[in-house]
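Could you show me just one protein sequence together with its fold in C-alpha cell form as a worked example?
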Amino acid sequence: MSQTDVLSGESHLSGLSIISTIAAKEFKDNLRNRWLWMMTAILLLLSLSVSFMGSAISGSLTMFEPAQTLSGLVTLSVFILPLGAILLSYDSFVGEKEAGTLLLLLTYPLARWHLLCGKFLGHGCVMAIACILGFGVTGLMLILLGDAKVQLTIVSGFTHLILSSILLSLVFILLGYWVSLCVREKAKALGILLILWFVLALIYDLVLLTVLVAMADILNRELFNIVILFNPTDLFRALNLIANPADTLVAKSSLTLIAQTGLGLPLMYCLFAGWIIGLLFCCHWVFKQQEI
C-alpha cells in the first residue's frame, strides 16, 4: 500500500470522526433542551388520539380500521413533522453566525461539509427517534390489541409511515439549513420557513386538490406526476396512500386522487432520496460560497 493510500485512509477516517463528533454534540444539545422528548410526546399523543379516540366524534368508541387510522395519521403528520423539522433547524447556521461561534468553528481543522453533514446527522437522528417512538408505540399497541387478521397490515402500514416520516423530516431539515444559510437574522429565517411550510403543507394541497376535482377527466397524468414531485408533503401523502389503500367510504376522500400517480413505492422512496441528496448539495454549495 502506497503512502498516498494511507494518507487518504487517515483523512477519510478523520472526516468521519469529525462528522460523528458534531452529530453527537447536536444530538446531546437537543437532549439537554428536551426537544427530542417534546417532539416524541407530540407524535405519540397524536397517534394515540387518532388510533383510540378518533371515533368519539361519531358518538361511539370503536377502533378504526388500520387504513383509516393511518390515513388520519398521515393527514395530521404532514403538518406536524415539517413544522417540527423547521423549528429544529432554522437557526442551525444563522444562529451560530449571530453568536460568533460559526467563525470559531471554522478556525478548527474541519471542512464546511463536515459541519453540514454533522449537523444533518445529529438533527436527523433526533427526528428519526421521535418518529420511531411516537408512531412505533402506537403501532405496537394496535398489534397487541387488534385482530390477528390485520396485524400484518398494521406492521406494513406503520413501517411505511415511520420511514416516510423520517424522510419528510430530513427534507424539511435541509430546507431549514438552506434558508438559515441564506439570511442574516434568525427571525427572518423563521419567518421565511413558516411561510414555506404554510404554502407546501396547506395552500399547495388545496390548490392541487381543487384542480384535480375540477379537471379530473381532462388532466394530463404525466403533468400531475411532475406537480406531485415538486412538493415533498404531497409525495409523503401519495406514498402512504399507495402503501395503505383504503376500501371503506370513510377513509376515501379527494386526497386519494393524489395516490393515483402511477408511481410505485420503490420509485417514490428514490424520489425522496433525490430530494435529500439534491438539497444537501444545494446547502453545501451555498455554504461553500459564503464568506463568514
